[in-house]
Amino acid sequence: MSHMTRAHRSGHRTRWAAAVAVTALGAGTVRARRRLASLPVLDPAGPHTPAGPHDTAPPPLPGWQLITAPGVVADEATLRAAVAHATREGLRVVDLIPAHLDAESVLGLLRLLDPEAHRTDRCAPGQGAGHALLVAEDIHRRAGLDAEPPPQSVAGLIRLLRTLKEYAPDTTGWAIAPGLRSPHPDPARRAEELRARGLPPALLSAAQLAGLALLAKCALSEPRWGAAAAALYWLQPAAVLSPARGLRPAGLARATATRPLRSLSTALRTLATPPAEPPRAEGTAGHAAYTAELAAGTDRFFEPRRTDCPWCSAPDPVVRVRMPDLLQAKPGRFTLEECRHCGHVFQNPRLTLEGLDFYYRDFYEGLGGEGAALVLGRMSATYRDRAELLRPFTTPRNWLDVGTAGGHFCNTARGVWPATRFDGLDMGEGVHEAARRGWIDTAYQGQFPDLADRLAGRYDTVSMHHYLEHTRDPLAELDAAVKVLAPGGHLLIELPDPESRISRLLGPHWLPWFQPQHQHLMPAGNLKQALESRGFTVLAEQHGAAHQNNADFLGAVALTANRLAPDPLAPWATIPATRARRAARSAVQTLAIPCYAAALALDNVRTALARATDGGNAYRLLARKELG
C-alpha cells in the first residue's frame, strides 16, 4: 500500500512537471514567433550586384561603418538597404541578421532579444546575431573603435554590440538581411559566445541537460502530457521558423528532426569546454598582487571595534549577523551589530579606507565590471519607478545622482524626464565612462561631502539609490545634500530595509547585507528623523514598491553556492585552482539549478506579497528641502 502511494505521488508529480513543461514551451514558442514578427526585413531595391566569392571588402558607406565577423559578406544592395532603413528609423547602430542563420542560433537569439522592448529600453543589454553591424561614424568614434582592430569572431561582435548599445541606448535596432552571407556556426565556439552574452556556459548546459532528462522522464512516465511536452520541444524550430517572413534557416528540417540529439551533443560539448581564464600575464600579475597584499593578513583592514551606536550613541550594541565575504569570497570575516535603542545596523569593526579599497577592487570595475554592468542593466523597471516618484510633486530640471556608478539610473530616467539635465557623482572611474556614453551630462569623481561646497545650491533634485549604506558617515552625506540642494529641492533616497522579516530568516545569506560593502543599514524611522532635523519634509514613503525582486531567495542560493565552492580561478583565491576544485565548483553550480528554480518561484510570490502588503526588502523616501 505504501509502495502504491509513493508510486501514485511520483506519477502525480511527473504529470504536473509535464504540464508545466508544455505550458512553458508553448509560451516560449508564442513569444519567439511574436519577437520574430517584429524584426524588420531589408528589401534591397534597384540594381543588384552580387558579391563574388573573393569579394570581402564592403563598398564605401559615407557616414557609416560596417563591421563583420570573419567570413561574413554583404552585397552592395543589402548595405544600401541597411543604411536606408537606419536613416528612416533614426537608428545609429543596426545588427544585421543573416536570413540563413541556423535554427538554434535564431531561437537562442529570440530568447534574449525582444526587438520592440529593447529598442526603447535604454538600459537593455545589446543582444545580436554577432555577424554584421552597421554603425554610424559618430558612434564608432565615440566608442573608441577608430583606434581598435575589428573583432575576429562572432563572440567579439556580440560583445561589441553590447558596448555600442550603451552609446546608442535608444537608437540601436535589428534587421534581417537576406543578402548577408555567413559561414556555418562553429559548435566549439558556443561557450565563448555564451560568455560574450554574459551567460554562464556550464550552468546553462547543465540546465539544458536537466531539461532533456526531465522531458525524457515525462515522456516515458506520463504518455499524454509527457509526449506533448517532448513533441513540442522537438518541433519547436519548425513551429517558430516555418514559415517565417524573411528568414530561411539553413537545414531547418534536419535541425528539427535531430533536435534532441543535437541539443544533447551541444550541451555536453559546452559543459566539457574549460572555463575562460584571464590572459596569462594579466592573471599572473593579478594573483601576485593579491598574494602580496594578503601576506600581511586582513586584520589591518579593520578599525578598532566601537562600543556605541554611530547613529544615536547608545552603548552596547548587539551582534545581528556574522559572515565571510560571500560576494567575491575574498578572505576576511565581518560582523554587523544592531543598536538596542534605535535599531541602526552597522559594520563593527568597520573597514578602514585601505580595507574598503581592497574589498571593492574588481567588483564594479576590473574583473567584476562586466557582471556588475549586466546586473545594473537589468533594472530598468526599478529605475523608471524611482524617477516616476517625483511626478506628483515636481518637474526636475537639474538632477544630481550620487553614487551613480555607471549612470544606469540616469540613462533610464532620461526617458521619463527628457528635458532634465542629469549629472552623476561617484568614487569610481565608471562615472567618466557614463559621461562618454552620454548617460550623464557631467561627471564628478570623489566623495560627496568633499564636493558639496563646490556644488552648493546647483540642483533641484538629488538622488541616493542604494548609496548611503555604502558610506562611512551617512549623516555627513545628508549634510552634503542639504548644501547641494536649492531651497524647495527634492531628495530621493532608496535603501535596504534592515527591519525586513526575511533578513532574520535568511541570516548571513540575505543578499542586502552585502558584506563587506554595506557599512550602515538605517531603519526608515531613523532616516526620516534625520531628514526632518535637517529641514526636510518627507513627501512619500514606499516599501513594497521599492522591493527588489530576486534579492531574497535567489540571492540566498547564489551566495550559498559561492560559499560552498568559491571560484578557484579568482586572483585572490588562497587555494590552488586544481582540476578537482574546478570540478567541485561546476558540480555545486549544477546541483543548485533546481534550487535556483525554486528560489525564483518563491521570490515571485514574495514580490507579489511585498507589493500587496507594502513590506519589502527595501524602502524609498522622497523629501523636500523647505524654503528659508
Keywords:
4-stranded mixed beta sheet, alpha/beta, single chain, 46% helix, 628 residues, 17 strands, 7-stranded mixed beta sheet
**Structural class of the helix and strand makeup?**
alpha/beta
Low-confidence stretches: 46-56
Helix content: 40-55%
Identify the CATH homologous superfamily of the largest domain: Vaccinia Virus protein VP39
Write out the strand line-up for the largest beta sheet, numbering strands in chain order.
12-11-10-13-14-17-16
Give the name of the CATH architecture of the largest domain. Answer: 3-Layer(aba) Sandwich
Strand content: 5-15%
* CATH topology group of the largest domain: Rossmann fold
The number of distinct helices, counting runs of at least 4 residues, comes to 24
Number of strands: 17
- Number of structural units classed as domains: 4
**What top-tier CATH class of the largest domain fits best?**
Alpha Beta
Protein name: Methyltransferase type 12
InterPro entries: SAM-dependent_MTases_sf
Region (Disordered): 41-64
Describe the SSE topology.
Layout: H1 2-37, E1 64-68, E2 73-74, H2 76-89, E3 93-98, H3 103-112, H4 115-120, E4 132-136, H5 137-142, H6 154-167, E5 172-177, E6 180-181, H7 190-196, H8 201-221, H9 223-241, H10 252-257, H11 259-272, H12 280-294, E7 318-324, E8 333-338, E9 345-347, H13 353-360, H14 369-376, H15 380-388, E10 398-402, H16 408-416, E11 421-426, H17 430-437, E12 442-445, H18 448-451, E13 459-465, H19 474-484, E14 485-496, H20 501-506, E15 520-521, H21 524-533, E16 536-542, H22 553-564, H23 579-591, H24 593-613, E17 618-625
